[in-house]
């Protein structure tokens, strides 16, 4: 059996691509020690041209997962991009079962930070991560759940913000949006931190201790921000100002669905209203120094990131998930 030092999923995405880039170019790992994966054979040339190993690994096809994971020492398990939670749950079950069956030595699962070190059961996107952590516990495999802070880069998605927006509409909630502190985190810094953790291991960072039976390592910025802070950051670097308006929750959902430039559905905004409520109740306020330890510097704050993104694009910053037609509410 040929040993595979590192096998990475999700490398065609933004976070996974950054992790791979850092492993190769900053940490100088030999390309031959890394196996990149994709559900599509058409990606083979892209990765093999860089000297990387390549395997087809499709979460919907358990036989490809088992074949790819044979002999793997460190498995970076990125969540499926599927929107339907029931389908994602099945896909993740396929992955965990295959990893156990072939004896993967250590699984590094990339989760989300809703709930901090606890369990948030109200945000649908977090539910699959909770289930997957429970699958990993039941498997008795060696694993770490890397709970990644929500991307500051994705603020347009959270706030339904577009450069063309005349105003920033937020729901009127209790507790209010102005008291909902969030550890918004840079996607690039998360990629850098995860690459260091995966490559160097926990042994190189004794202050980082996985928390509880879910083996959580929480990677966040050190500073929390509210969406009012983010709105102020946007306006501080734009010529055309966008005032903040507060709408009653039902009105906010109706208005967002009616006027959304990305054609997202009413159900989508109803789900996002739950996100807002949970964020205002502190679901994303927990911070941890682990990312600073891995970076060797203080992570950027959400305000700093947004100012850089919006200012650096002359106010025209966009986020790919904020448009492109109606989406699943999950």
UniProtKB/TrEMBL annotation:
Residues 10-153 form the NAD(P)-binding domain. Gene3D superfamilies: NAD(P)-binding Rossmann-like Domain, UDP-galactose 4-epimerase, domain 1. It comes from the Eukaryota. InterPro entries: NAD(P)-bd_dom, NAD(P)-bd_dom_sf, NmrA-type_oxidoreductase. It holds the Pfam family NAD_binding_10. PANTHER family: NMRA-LIKE DOMAIN-CONTAINING PROTEIN, QUINONE OXIDOREDUCTASE 2. This is NAD(P)-binding domain-containing protein. It comes from Peltaster fructicola.
């Amino acid at each position: 059996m040929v040993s595979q030092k590192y096998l990475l999923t999700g490398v065609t995405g933004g976070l996974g691509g950054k992790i791979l880039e850092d492993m190769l170019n900053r940490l100088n790992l030999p390309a031959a020690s890394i196996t990149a994966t994709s559900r599509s054979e058409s990606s083979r040339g892209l990765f093999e041209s860089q000297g990387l190993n390549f395997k087809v690994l499709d979460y919907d096809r358990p036989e490809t997962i088992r074949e790819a994971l044979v002999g793997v020492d460190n498995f970076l398990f990125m969540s499926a991009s599927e929107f339907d939670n029931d389908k994602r749950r099945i896909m993740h079950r396929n992955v965990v079962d295959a990893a156990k069956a072939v004896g993967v030595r250590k699984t590094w699962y990339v989760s989300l930070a809703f709930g901090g070190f606890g369990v948030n059961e109200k945000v649908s996107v977090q539910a699959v991560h909770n289930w997957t952590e429970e699958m990993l516990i039941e498997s008795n495999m060696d694993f770490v759940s890397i709970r990644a802070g929500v991307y500051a880069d994705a603020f347009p998605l959270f706030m339904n913000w577009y450069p063309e927006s005349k105003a920033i509409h937020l729901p009127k909630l209790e507790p209010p949006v102005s008291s909902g502190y969030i550890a918004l985190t840079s996607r690039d810094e998360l990629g850098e931190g995860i690459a260091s953790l995966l490559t160097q291991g926990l042994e190189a960072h004794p202050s980082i201790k996985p928390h509880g039976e879910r083996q959580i390592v929480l990677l966040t910025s050190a500073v929390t921000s509210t969406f009012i802070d983010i709105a102020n950051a946007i306006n501080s670097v734009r010529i055309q100002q966008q005032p903040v308006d507060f709408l009653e929750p039902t009105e906010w959902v109706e208005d967002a669905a009616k006027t959304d430039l990305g054609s997202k559905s009413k159900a989508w905004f109803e789900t996002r209203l739950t996100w807002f409520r949970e964020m205002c109740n502190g679901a994303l306020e927990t911070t941890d120094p682990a990312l600073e330890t891995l970076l060797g510097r203080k992570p950027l704050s959400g305000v700093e990131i947004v100012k850089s993104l919006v200012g650096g694009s002359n106010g025209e910053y966009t986020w790919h998930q904020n448009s492109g037609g109606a989406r699943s509410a999950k």
